[in-house]
Amino acid sequence: MNTFLNNFPILAIMILFVGAFVTSLVGRRSALARNGVVLVSMTAALAMMLALVKPVLLDGQIITYWLGNWEPVEGWAFGICLEVDALSLFFGLIVTVAVFVSGVYSFTYMNHDDSLVNYYTLFLMLSGSVLGLVLSGDLFNIFVMVEIMTFTAVALTAFRNTYEGALEGALKYLVVGSLGSTSLLVGIAMLYSQLHTLNLAQISALIPGQGANPVIIAAFAFLFMGFATKAFLFPFQPLAADAHAVAPASISLMISGVLTKCGVYGIIRLCYVLYENLNQPLVQYLVTGFGAVSMFICVTMAFNQHNFKRLLAFHSISQVGYVITAVGLGSALGVSAGLYHAMNHTIFKGLLFLTAGAVQHQTGSLDLDSLGGLSKRMPRTTLLFLIGAASISGLPPFNGFASKWMIYQAAFQRGAATGNFFFLFVCIVALITSVLTLASFIKVAQSVFFGQLPEQYKEVKEVPLAMRIPMWILAVLCIVTGLFPTQVQNYLLLPATSAAFNAANYIDQAMGLGYAAAHGIATGGVAGLMVSDCWNPTSWLMLLFCITCAVAIVALLASPNDLKDAHISSCDEQAEVLDAKYESFFSGEESVYSQVGGSDLFWGFKHNWRKYFSYMHDWHSGIVNDYTLYGVVAIAFVLLACIILL
Amino acid sequence: MNVLLSSLFHVLIFPGLLFCVVMGVLLSGLDRIWVARMQRRVGPPLLQSWYDFLKCCGKETIVPRHAKKAVYFAAPVVGFAALISISLFLPIAGGKPAYSGTADLVVILYLLTLVSVCTIVGASASGSPFAGVGLSREMVAMISYELPFVLVILAVSRAILAPGDSLNNIFSLQAIADYQAANGPLITRWALIPAAIAMLFVIPCEVGMHPFDVAEAETEICEGTLAEYSGPPLAVFRLTHMVKMFIMTALFCVLFLGGITTGIAVLDVILFVLFCLILTFLTMSLPHGACARFKVEQVFKFYWTVVAGLAALSLILVWLGL
Amino acid sequence: MMAVNYIGSFALIALGLYCMVAKHNLIKVIIGMGLVDYGTNLLIVSVGFNPGGTAPIFTIAELTRESFFVDPVPQALTLTSIVIGACMTAMSLSLVIKLREQYGTLDTRKIRRLNG
């Protein structure tokens, strides 16, 4: 193995932390030096992750790095270790790309704010901690990274502390989020008390020998809930909503695109590698159930929202619900569908948050009820928003469709293979959630970008190019990952999925060959994904293009003569007196400003569900004690369910 | 060269552009005549819809002041093209789909969604308040029929699975067609009859036909989504509407009436057209002549209780192996 | 008897959780968070305890197979965890001070502008 590459994981993490340190040193003197340091550390981390793609993803190696060279002695891992397998690297790539985009966006987006040195220091620490989490091979280090992550995320949420509700959102995030951290730590302590090790690989090897040890099972419940909190699964979704709505958009991208992914990574690592217990029906019900409930409740909650970013926040959790649902199915197709959607979620939700940030940056408002008609003033942002909205709603040929399609396949396969109604129900919920997501984004499009422009936004300008470039990066990724699902599967998903199913290799690489076999862990792996080849986006797109051309040509050639005389009239905005024929139709009345939009757009739907909506509105009371109570109840429920039924 | 020619034939003539448009015009014309007869009128000539289309094409296009021009023009064309592309994936008249392996049932579900989304986005971009109300209703109608539609799709996909089958191509239309060719049409399975009835209800709502045309209610919201459209873009929307009648009835034939063949390709196509005509009469003309328009919240309630209930019943039955 | 450390620390955690759920004063909520932290720390340090073990302070030369000492790792973990807990408290208190300036109250029932 290449020893030089071996150092890349630790270097990538260190460079972000060192960057944070250097930023605070030099940043006060010159903004240019500060931005330079940030850019260099982000780019270096990204480049190192990309350099690992070949050995880890393509050649299937696992890179282990023992800090201070404390390698295992006699089968006991004393040292702290970084272990990068395909699964870790998959998330590492997601993280570094998101960090890069968010950082570049910040350079322009944050230019109205002061004390930016603190912002970038915290930002780089957040990035470093997240990268450290996904690359770590040590349970306690995961906890420490989670704590740094929570800290910096809370501080960044409250960064614009004069903004309405910023402090409140941050405090709720901190208080209720501490439940998750505590839950993780308790789980770690319980595991340690039984196994006397913190190394992931060794824990994974030792757990099967413990049999039905209740402490080990309780530890599973605690760890699961700890990661679930970090992914903001139900009932922790109010935290995400509060934090997203008030954080700067670049941080919203980090919270939704990166922090939730840490929770997802943790759950996959926990269920597939550490415990290898996703073949048990109860665990499947538990994980999938949490995912499905989050998915549905959050999408309906989004119907109630008046704030652009708060709405996006609920969708963020709804999409993470999709990921967890797929992961909980316990099949190779499920995991790869989940990973695919996790990646896509980072891309399209990042794009949407950045467009929301662009709107906020130019208009100063995020209120769906007062915005409108911005497509006239910000056409490029509108286009980017439409790409993001089409992706998240799963319209072909964008990436959201490809991954959702795999999730439906996985859920239905699982249901058909077991004859179990639960998985069928999950499949139906996933399909319905998708159309509700679409409805919600139609609402945003109509309320913010289309319709009539309010008087006070007449002078709004398009965002500068420096902010559009990061958005275009994400938009292009949306299209590319959607158009080439087969390549994504072969080069990204299949290695990561195989890594999730091959705990033995993970153990052996850290603890020495034969260690897994000695503890009775069979070598697993996934030969190929059972994906039907019934979706071919590139052919479809070519067909669509052909048909569009055909329609155009036929219309031009075969049209009656008077078509050629028909002309398109559009109004001249600069004209002194506007021609009345260009005004909106008002049944013969004089045209006035009238924007249909805002939070109550889908009255016909909400009317039928008014009891549910008003109940859910009250449930999200905004009182921190209530949220804590929901969290405690959820943890207690999972704990009891695991101990009694496992 | 042959491949290219046959592709062109598929896209342009059968079952692509030309066939779809002809069928759409035919179904829509017949529908208008039938409704007229039910109301004791003579009704327009068969090709009236086509004349309407041509006339619209010759009119001036007025882009309203609040409209976003690019989206205003792109939406109808993309929607229409997406709709035509569906026909290429349907195994029409017992044959193979023109492009097998490119799309399956879930994709078609989403392509139909894409067509509706194009209408909605186009309406939204026209900046009219009537269109705003219209698109809100269109979306609610979409949520309404989506649940039963999804349940029907799942029921059919489950019904064709025999124990021990590979689960790789579960939503494949080709698999559904093959199954029916071997075992007779799915409508003969009693467990699927409720699903077929549910699907019959889905058709008019998906097409946006009276009494479920809440989004385009002329008398209340002045054509709703189309309020600000004029000239060729309006013509394309009208054509989309007609072709959708054909696509939806054809989808029903593919799902439930497959496997009825005479062995002669031309006769098969004629039989297929006949089925489409009967379905059009049953699902669109008859309710149109018999009912007044529903309110939007009634549509939602009806579809999520009665129709979804029927489809769910079927799904449970096939899931239990009946 | 083996479970007494679990009972003790979980009792402390439960007390802290009760405080977080039932008390409407933000300062008390943060005290609750502190209690939960202490309970967790107690749990970690207690799982490393070996009855009769000595303090784990040896040089490499003194370390033999027969050495019997309490597990040092949980102590290191506890130390880290205490530090993190202290930071958490400091951070939340500073947020509370700012909140008090903006909202003029410490009552959680009145700090709910973000809801629904």
Q: List low-pLDDT spans of chain C.
A: none
The major pleated sheet of chain B works out as: none
* Total domain units of chain C: 1
CATH topology of chain C: Helix Hairpins
Number of DSSP-assigned strands of chain B? 1
Q: How would you describe this protein?
A:
The complex is a heterotrimer of chains A (646), B (322) and C (116). Chain A has 646 residues and is an all-alpha fold. Chain A has helices at residues 3-6, 8-26, 31-51, 53-58, 86-109, 116-135, 139-157, 166-195, 200-206, 214-230, 237-246, 249-274, 281-302, 308-328, 332-363, 379-392, 399-418, 421-449, 465-483, 485-501, 503-511, 515-518, 537-557, 561-565, 603-608, 610-619, 624-645; strands spanning 63-66, 81-84, 568-570. Chain A has a two-stranded antiparallel ribbon. Chain A is globular and about 85 Å long. With 322 residues, chain B is mostly helical. Chain B has one domain (2-319). Chain B has helices at residues 2-12, 17-38, 48-57, 69-87, 105-125, 129-159, 173-183, 193-207, 218-221, 231-256, 265-290, 296-319, and one strand at 61-63. Chain C is an all-alpha fold. Helix content of chain C is 63%, strand content 0%. In chain C, helix 1 packs antiparallel against helix 2 and helix 2 packs antiparallel against helix 3 (72-103). The mean pLDDT of chain C is 85. Classes of the chains: A mainly alpha (646), B mainly alpha (322), C mainly alpha (116). Chains in contact: A-B, A-C. At the A-B interface, helix 16, helix 17, helix 18, helix 23 and helix 24 of A face helix 1, strand 1, helix 4, helix 5 and helix 6 of B. Strand 3 (568-570) of chain A pairs parallel with strand 1 of chain B, so a sheet runs across the interface.
